[in-house]
Design goal:
351 residues, single chain, cytoplasm, seven-stranded mixed sheet, 28% helix, seven-stranded parallel sheet, globular, AGPR_AS, alpha/beta, Dihydrodipicolinate Reductase, domain 2, NADP, N-acetyl-gamma-glutamyl-phosphate reductase, 11 helices, binds NADPH dihydro-nicotinamide-adenine-dinucleotide phosphate, binds N-acetyl-L-glutamyl 5-phosphate
Length: 351
């Protein structure tokens, strides 16, 4: 079989570069199209992104052109800002190509998207719904699909932490689940913004978009679907850490019945027994962002507090890997019928 031809649009952004880092080592495909926006003319990728300086096997980086993208690709990753990405994803998909959209544009119903993102949704009534690409949770639903909406970074860490609870009777119906989430600065993309200056960010740490973060409905939607509790809510706090990469989610969940650590651990092990990318840590071990940097992995730790009748659940991911490019490549592997770990590292880069 010919190797599938793969394109990346948004190839100079943080998620795009991470995609190309992974795809350039993937054994079963050929990268045939790399595009961004602010380019006068085509140039070598290594000239623009110096980490690739000596890597001469990539196509030239071009200003995006839809016709060329359709001519040159069988499957396209869109790593573009929300508000731009979804519309292009639908155009490319309607032209018969497989698409993985990393933006928030196709993750939510039209009205919900418009109220949380403050942008016009690209969805119309007749659009095929994209499949939500939470690959470690629903690999079967992703296999052989042609339009995937890749989850948000906070949403990935939160959902991997919380979804196994949805199939138990451990939690109060109508309870509010507290999700305290912290991210490194690459989560905000590479566009210059004052709050991302070294002098603002270093030696600093603070919450942002409290009460209105766009991943709130994305997380609630999936939890409600899996628990069949339409009123389940989360209280999400997002915070900016003075590090470039990584997310730590700490979730606090009221219990309505008691459970031992061993039984809870078994529920989580069973939930992720099919994936090599999610590890449940043994009793008393706590996850560290450093352990997942550069890898498409998620480490989850559990604590049952019998004193307060609460569960504490902690998860770490690399926002650019499991939270974006790594999960997107895992989704591609599933879509194309390949083993889902193909081309993906299981080992973090730290220390
Ligand atoms: N960063 C992260 O951790 C995560 C990001 N995401 C999502 O992935 C997407 C990309 O994020 P990120 O890489 O951080 O963003 P960046 O701002 O770092 O990169 C955006 C990329 O899109 C390109 N671009 C922008 N507008 C256009 C256009 N009209 N036509 C062609 N190319 C265009 C930019 O090129 P140029 O510079 O030439 O304009 C750049 O290559 C976003 O939707 C984001 O929400 C999802 C999960 C995690
Ligand atoms: C640190 C930081 O700013 N992180 C980003 C997360 C980016 C992301 O995943 O956003 P989408 O929903 O558009 O994909 C944020 O909080 O908006």
């Amino acid at each position: 079989m010919n190797q599938p031809r793969i394109g990346v649009v948004g190839a100079t952004g943080y998620a795009g570069v991470e995609l190309i880092r992974i795809l350039s080592r993937h054994p079963l495909l050929k990268i045939t199209y790399l595009a961004a926006q602010k380019l006068e003319q085509s140039e070598t990728y290594g000239h623009k992104i110096s980490a690739f300086r000596q890597f001469g096997e990539l196509p030239a980086l071009e200003p995006f052109d839809l016709e060329r993208c359709l001519d040159l690709c069988d499957l396209v990753f869109l790593a573009l800002p929300s508000g731009i990405s979804g519309r292009l994803a639908l155009q490319i998909h309607h032209a018969g190509k497989k698409v993985i959209d990393l933006s928030g544009d196709l993750r939510l119903p039209k009205e919900v998207y418009e109220s949380w993102y403050g942008l016009a949704s690209p969805l119309t009534q007749k659009d095929t719904h994209a499949v939500y690409g939470l690959s470690d949770w629903q690999a079967e639903q992703i296999a052989n699909q042609s339009l995937i909406s890749n989850p948000g970074c906070y949403a990935t860490a939160a959902l991997l932490s919380l979804l196994p609870l949805c199939q138990t009777k451990l939690v109060e119906s109508q309870s509010v689940w507290v999700v305290d989430a912290k991210s490194g600065s690459t989560g905000a993309g590479k566009s210059p913004q004052p709050h991302l200056l070294l002098s603002e960010l270093s030696n600093n740490f603070y919450p942002y978009r409290v009460g209105c973060h766009q991943h709130t409905p994305e997380i609630e939607q999936k939890l409600q679907e899996e628990s069949k509790q339409a009123d389940l809510q989360i209280q999400l706090t997002t915070q900016l850490l003075p590090i470039p990469r990584g997310i730590l989610v700490s979730a606090y969940i009221p219990l309505c019945s008691t459970i031992s650590f061993t039984d809870l651990y078994e529920i989580y092990q069973n939930a992720y027994h099919d994936t090599p990318f999610v590890s449940i840590l043994p009793c008393g071990e706590w996850p560290q962002i450093q352990s997942v940097l550069g890898a498409n992995t998620c480490h989850i730790a559990l604590h049952v507090d019998n004193r307060t009748q609460m569960l504490q659940i902690f998860a770490v991911i690399d926002n650019l890997q499991k939270g974006a490019a790594g999960q997107a490549v895992q989704n591609m592997n599933l879509m194309l019928g390949w083993p889902m770990e193909t081309g993906l590292s299981l080992i973090g880069s730290a220390p």
